[in-house]
Amino acid sequence: MSLTPEEIAELTDDISIWFTQDLYHHLTTLAEEVSTILPQKWRTGKILFLLLRYLPICYIILAIFLECRIHMDLTPKVCRELYIANALAIGRVILFGAEVVILLCLHALLGARRRYLALCILIYMGLTITVIILAGRVDSEASRALLRSELDQELGYGCTWSGDRSSDAIKMVVIAGYMSLAKATSMAILMLSVFLVRYRNTTGTLLHVLRRDSGVQIVSLVALRLFAAVNSSFVELLGFYNIPDTIATE
Q1: pTM of the predicted structure, to 2 decimals
Q2: Residue 99, CB half-sphere, CA atoms under 13 Å: how many?
Q3: How confident is the model over 143-171, as pLDDT tens digits?
């Protein structure tokens, strides 16, 4: 299916919106990556860094096919596979990888023994696996694609989704939301405890401690995860498509 010049211009604008910020960040930090990260041995830190740096590019590319007006006719099977690859595979690796990085950073700041880190990771993995299992039902329903509707054809979207959610799936995702909230709350408590310990062991101000220990970035990430977890806990009230969820995931 050939695109008209107007459709090409529209798609180009959409792609530029998705890529501009991410591409700018990659270009402005590429020299630092080459000099600092690439010479390092292949260990947990380097692997997590590269995953979280380059997987979002894959996520954006697939999201363009799923969410933008690409003016292409994708089959339901292709739409389903794209959704599974993007939301259920790449998206979760990015999300859970970022949370693991937060735990590693907090452990490093606290200077605790490795067995405490192992305990934190074990608890985190238990909660995370539980959330994935509970959300499995709604994930299966969310990935259900149909033949393109006339409206989506007119608008230029490549996929049409069923949009139906069973009552059992809604109950499961609510429980998963509470589990995510418990996980995010635990991370927030751990973060506050770590910075309190760091503050007591230094002569500087709290602001100095936060700036020195990348506290602003860590606090921001934990706050976003907490906000997203609160939103997912009230999905039954707010619905699956709501403004807070859009803010948390963009």
Answers
A1: 0.78
A2: 26
A3: 888 888 888 888 888 889 887 777 787 78
